[in-house]
From TrEMBL:
Membrane topology, record value: Multi-pass membrane protein
Xref: PANTHER family: METALLO PHOSPHOESTERASE RELATED, METALLOPHOSPHOESTERASE, ISOFORM E
Transmembrane segments: 247-266
Cellular compartments annotated: Membrane
Organism, as annotated: Nasonia vitripennis (Parasitic wasp)
Keywords: Membrane, Transmembrane, Transmembrane helix
GO molecular function, one term: hydrolase activity
SUPFAM superfamilies: Metallo-dependent phosphatases
Superkingdom per UniProt: Eukaryota
Name of this protein: Calcineurin-like phosphoesterase domain-containing protein
Calcineurin-like phosphoesterase domain ranges (all copies): 5-166
One GO term describing the cellular component: endoplasmic reticulum
Amino acid sequence: MWDSDRYLKKTFSRAVSRTQPDVIVFLGDLMDEGHIANAEDFEKYKRRLAHIFDTPDHIMKIYLPGDNDIGGEEDMVSSHIHERFNYAYTQSDTLVYSTATFFKVNRLTKTIPAAPKEAFLNDYAERNTTNVVLSHMPLLFMPGTFVQNVLKELSPQIIFTAHEHKAMHMSLDTATDQLSEIWILPPHKTPLYQLRLDMGDIHEIQIPTCSYRMGTPNMGYGLAYIDTQEKTLDFTILWLPERFYQIWIYLYVLGAAFLFSIFFLICSTCMSNHIAYSRVPI
């Protein structure tokens, strides 16, 4: 855990320093076992998270719960656990920064925030705001009544999701109600992708995990720039160095050093015994 926390803190600090973001979104699974943690352990998780992802106060931070935080994947979401998370990270489910309106939806609890009326005053091409839906669980790839309600009530241009630990992009053609594009972002390549937001498509971008403790070799932070005036989204993945490979190298070096130390100790002992034996008088 020490190495994992150090790795996260170092990579996150560098990402924030290099990109200077206005908003940072934590897309859920903030804690290892938050949904089964007692009150004391939950507070430890919270302090640990704040220490790892230390962020300047002027940056807006948005927190979403994941199944590791409140349950819901293999067990039911406890109202008590959900309320505990919301109390720990108290904020509205609808947040506005500049020309972007962020809506936090929760597929685990089937909750959708009420959208402000000004979010839909005109057609998007004539508006000066962009609607962004944030969800821990994927939406477009797993359609259903809940997803239909999200699209109908919030009318998003962009959706950011997580959970699957993959970097993907998919587009929904609102005219046909069918997925028009699905592509996986290649690991460890960081081209700057640009999407038009005024073509009648809804874009969902899945962000990979940033922790190697999730068991995947491909980790990264999502980086996006929304230009409401030009109706574009520029985004990429800031891929992180493979940690498993580095850990195996460390273990190999430590193992070799340990074996060398044992060999040296045995040789020294044998040499000492030989010298002592040779000095015995006849």
